[in-house]
Task: inverse folding
């Protein structure tokens, strides 16, 4: 409702509650997507490797500031306890994320949105001439006054949704590893990357037409995900949960995705992914 930038990093482990706190899981995706009161979408990202945690955290800050929205970045216990070589990035190599240009004082209104991003202004508290009311009650479009008008509420809910959906224009297109089209697409997110990549690579070496799509942007999805899905006969989604990304893909793209679920507190082994691929391909040559 306030439309302010906030980054939350969720390092998932086997739940619910304190569950198995030293074990890994990917069971917070639906919480990140839907765990709020009312229609209030936000950005959801996921790191795929230990080094990727830095770049995706930086991306989370960029999107939060640019679009004036909370962002949840998902990691997990497996990533947090893993390591890989990584060159520390020098500060001057990073984009400047300091405050974007502000409107002139006479044009200021707390919900006057940027025409491209639909973000509202971000004002340092106490700035002369820009004092305004903020809080959890619905605000009138542009003026920011408290509003109980149903038509205004509909417009504000739709604007907030359009703002998040529009971020798909500002994120990289999804990239497929392995076969660019064919019999099977294996889709993963988060720390399943290594096991899926290795399993798909072995399958491709054996002459199978299998691709691997790993999603780092979970809300919104990259704009080309639908077109990628249409190029494969089957879709397999390995997850350390009971099928949360699978259900999102089926809902959004009406694809008959099949889940490969594991909630043992342990990451997937390469062989487990290979067996899932073999089952989906049904012994085809």
Result:
């Amino acid at each position: 409702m306030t439309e302010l930038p906030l980054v939350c990093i969720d390092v998932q482990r086997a739940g619910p509650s304190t569950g198995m706190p030293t074990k890994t899981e990917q069971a917070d995706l639906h919480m990140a997507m839907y765990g709020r009161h009312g229609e209030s979408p936000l950005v959801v990202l996921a790191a795929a490797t230990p080094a990727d945690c830095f770049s995706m955290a930086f991306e989370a800050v960029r999107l939060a500031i640019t679009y004036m929205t909370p962002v949840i970045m998902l990691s997990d216990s497996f990533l947090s306890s893993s390591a890989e070589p990584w060159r520390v990035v020098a500060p001057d190599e990073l984009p400047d994320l300091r405050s974007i240009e502000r409107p002139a004082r006479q044009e200021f209104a707390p919900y006057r949105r940027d025409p491209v991003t639909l973000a509202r202004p971000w004002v340092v508290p106490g700035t002369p001439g820009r004092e305004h009311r903020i809080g959890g009650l619905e605000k009138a479009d542009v003026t920011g006054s408290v509003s109980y008008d149903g038509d205004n509420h509909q417009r504000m809910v739709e604007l907030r949704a359009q703002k998040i959906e529009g971020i798909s224009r500002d994120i990289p297109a999804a990239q497929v590893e392995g076969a660019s089209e064919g019999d099977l697409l294996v889709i993963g997110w988060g720390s399943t990357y290594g096991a899926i990549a290795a399993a798909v690579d072995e399958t491709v070496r054996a002459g199978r037409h299998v691709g691997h799509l790993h999603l780092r942007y979970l809300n919104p999805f990259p704009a080309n995900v639908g077109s990628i899905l249409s190029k494969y006969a089957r879709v397999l989604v390995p997850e350390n949960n009971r099928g949360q990304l699978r259900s999102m893909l089926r809902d959004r793209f009406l694809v008959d995705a099949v889940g490969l679920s594991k909630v043992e507190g342990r990451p997937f082994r390469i062989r487990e992914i290979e067996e899932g691929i073999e089952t989906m391909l049904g012994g085809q040559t």
User: Anything to note?
Assistant: The longest strand covers residues 182-189. The chain has three domains: 6-93, 105-167, 176-281. The mean pLDDT is 93.
